[in-house]
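Internal ticket #5521
Category: modeling
Description: The requester needs a full-assembly model to guide mutagenesis choices. All entity lines are attached below as received. Residue total reported by intake: 609.
Assigned to: D.W.
Attached entities:
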Amino acid sequence: MEFRTCSFTGLKIHKPAEDLIKWNVITAVLFLTLGGLMGLLIGITRWPSVHYLDPTYYYRYLTLHGFDALLVWIIFFEVALVHFTSAVLLNTRTVIPSAGWIAYSLMLIGAIFVNITTFAGKADVLFTSYVPLKASGVYYTGVIIFAVGALTAFGHFFANIIQAKRDGAYKHSLPLGSFGMAAASIIAVVTLAHGAVIMIPTLLWSIGLIKYLDPGTYRLIFWGLGHPSQQINVCAMVAAWYMVSAFVLGGKPVNEKLSRTAFVLYIFFINVASEHHLLVDPIFSNWHKIINTSYVMHLAVFASMVHAFAIPASMEVALREKGYTNGLFEWLKKAPWGNPAFSGTFLSIIGFGFLGGTTGVIAGTEQFNIIRHNTFFITGHFHGTVVVGTTLAFMAFSYLLMPYIFKRELIMPRLASVQPYLYFIGVSMVSIGMMAAGALGVPRRHWDITFSGAPFSFTFDPSVDMFLSIMGLGTLLAVFAGVIYVVVIIGSALFGRRVAP
Amino acid sequence: MADKYDDEEHRNKIEAPGTLALSLIFLVVFMVLWFLHFKWLVEVWWVE
Amino acid sequence: MADEERKIEEQEEEPIPAWQLFYDNIMLLFFFGVAVPTLVYTVWGLMEIVQIPDLPSYSP
């Protein structure tokens, strides 16, 4: 018997899809642990009164933090969402499960290659690996293998939905969660294709087969990989928001046409956000910059604003149907705040919108970018989007997957229910501290902001120390909450009380 | 699964007044914060 | 019997709006999703890079 019926959701769950989801989630959490540990080390290094690591280790762990926390954790989790939305949510099977396992193995091998090379000190090139900074060929090979694995996994999504239509699992429209992941998969293809286009020549250059690689071209194409990989997160995160609203509260989108239009705007326009990285680049014309950032991009920003209010509205309608109709805000007061899946999602919406989203739009405006570019502000912005937004949303979703897919109860449910709040507060402090320091000119990535030994002397506004300390304290709190998350998820997956399938 | 979305049923109804109020509150708060932040930024970066 | 059932089904089936057919066509969305950023960002950017003249002393 390859199918079982989930007693919570009534979904028919295909056994191979279930196994793929389990392994991808657990692997994702393990890499989050590693990425989070690196985050702790570099976070307390940027805290001036601690300044923990030596420069060599600082840049090494910064490289790993970017790769593990920004790519590996998130893409493994997204692959779990791929199988969840293209098989489980459609009550159908996953086609060619072996392709899922090949994708999983490739991603794992690629990630291990990159981690070992970087730990061995052969790839201190940071996440961006800008040429002519050169890493060992193994590093680029690892990135390529990882990208090929991820491409296979997202291709699996399309194979699944095509087969599902043939099997009659849906007639015309995919459910909204699956539609969101379809958008994410389309964006993923664009992203990973750019990755292949630039990483293969970079590999050949690093092993000496190509003499020269143009840094300007590298930056252009690399950001076709680097930034859109975050747009996959945005789409997958929004899909997870809708699904949590549906599963926890029974919420339906208030206007399905509007929500789908917002996803379509993502598909068409969000990938040009890469241009933000090139706004101070003298190579590109103003027209290229203005059309991309000030016209095309804002259509995708509009889509985010649609989602940011469509999802709370769907939650409100669902809660009002349950009878919480007094006044404007009774539904908000009586919402299931103790359920980490709900609270994590709600905090993720707030954090993504108001810490990450608005600041991204500000920093992405050409005129503002000139004083924000390469400052800590940018790091603060994307900790708002990727950590408070995506990571918290995925944490919330994984609390739902425990009973649905792992068939286990959460261990330590009390601790789990405060985890999203602690994580939200911690990472918000990190994000706000970084942004405030960055607005005062503190550079990103840099180990030594006192510029000791430099031919010129420069001191920042004294309040910078306070903001960086807020960031450091936030790091400690976020890591504490991250440890709770890892213990609860791994502990529940292994030792949680079994629930009826 | 419905073939056609049931959006028509929701047309011209304010079903989520709380979210509408929240969005307006956020709009006002954001505008105030944005203005204060901008003022602060000008003070920090102003060169005589 | 079967004919009657089919008739009822046909009556219930309302025409699906054109925009919804467009949104349901994932492969068409895929095409635009790849084409728009590739043209507006990548190809345009590459064209600008190749138009920049080399330094007179440059030899790769």
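Resolution: model delivered.
Comment from assignee: Chain A touches chain B through 26 residues (CB under 8 Å).
Ticket closed.
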